[in-house]
Amino acid sequence: MTRPVALVTGASRGIGRAIALDLARHGFDIAANDLAPDSALHALVAEISALGARAVAVPFDVSDLSAHEAALSRIASELGPLTTLVNNAGVGVMQRGDPLNVSEASFDRCMAINAKALFFLCQAFARHVLANPQATAHPRAIINITSSNATAAAAPRAEYCASKAAAAMVSKCFAVRLGREGIAVYDVQPGLIETEMTAAVIDSYKQRAADGLCLFPWVGQPADVAGVVATLATNKLPYTTGHVISVDGGMLLPRF
Ligand code: NAP
User: Fold this and answer.
1) Atom 41 in ligand 1: residue holding the nearest Cα
2) Which residues are annotated as catalytic?
3) Ligand 1: does its nearest atom lie under 6 Å from the Cβ of 12?
4) How far is the C-alpha of 239 from the C-alpha of 137, rounded, in Å?
């Protein structure tokens, strides 16, 4: 029987890397995307192969929409029918600060990578799956990594919040459209996770988590997000779609 095949974007480091490795441990073959075919991406492919899964490096800029179709076709020809898309690639703001000073360049970059690319990769994946109905017994899913900032406003990162809120709505719309196709769509919203993206602020995040911002008084790790993604990708929440899954240590639980 063929194995399930997942495309994980932004897989060279951080949350994406943890997701790619965890899915490989759960029996997936992995198409690992990042911007450049650099040593980090190749090291990941080697690590996945050592786990006994097949892996290919599929470098492209997710915001280059013209690259999507060719990438998906290449994955299918090298690994077999795609079953799973994890839209993880994302960027923060160019500079934290007053929304009154946000640059058009930073706004456009957040929107292009965090929202527009995610929309069109969902579209390309869905078209690809529907146009290639080879028999696969595996569940099919799109898992979008958005953010707690899809929900909670952080004014010094306004353009990031806006892009993640857009991505959250994209997830809902595709869940509505793809239900009839049997493709589940989930919106995974990490909270404070220790990665390169948060390196400059992680100490203050740790303090704020300990001071009660999160119900668990610690920040999360990439493996925490990866564990949730593997749960969803392996259909451990059967007959569900369209859900927001917060991976935030309870940060956004309403309380007073
Ligand atoms: P990270 O450490 O900055 O890693 C992001 C990865 O995405 C990098 O490998 C980066 O490549 C890649 N990437 C960026 N732009 C890309 C593009 N246009 N095409 C392909 N790959 C691209 O970030 P992370 O913390 O792991 O975050 C992963 C996702 O979780 C993001 O969507 C982020 O917004 C979201 N998230 C993170 C947190 C957190 O606390 N860390 C919280 C909520 C949500 P380069 O190395 O070449 O730049």
Assistant:
1) 193
2) 160
3) yes
4) 16
Tell me how crowded residue 7 is: count the other CB atoms within 10 A of its CB: 27
Pocket test for ligand 1, best of 149, 192, 195, 198 (most atoms within 8 A of CB): 195
Q: Is 63 close to ligand 1, i.e. is its CB under 6 Å away?
A: yes
Decide if pLDDT at 234 tops 70: yes
Q: Report the run of H or E that residue 17 belongs to, with start and end.
A: helix 14-25
Residue range 5-247, CATH number: 3.40.50.720
Q: Is the pTM of this model over 0.70?
A: yes
Q: Is the CB of 198 under 6 A from ligand 1?
A: yes
Domain boundaries, the chain: 5-247
Angle 117-131/68-79 helices, nearest 10 degrees?
A: 50
Name which residue sits closest to atom 32 of ligand 1, judged by CA: 90
pLDDT digits (tens, 9 = 90+) for 77-117: 999 999 999 999 999 999 999 999 999 999 999 999 999 99
Return the ligand 1 atom nearest residue 219 CA.
40
- For 105, counting Cβ atoms within 10 Å of its Cβ (0-12 exposed, 13-18 middle, 19+ buried), the class is exposed
Candidate from 197, 214, 246, 247 with most ligand 1 atoms within 8 A of CB, to mutate? 197
Count of C-beta atoms within a 10 Å radius of residue 213: 18
Q: How far apart are CA 178 and CA 82, in angstroms?
A: 15
**DSSP calls for 45-78:** HHHHHHTT--EEE----TT-GGGHHHHHHHHHHH
Euclidean distance between CA atoms 11 and 31, whole angstroms:
9
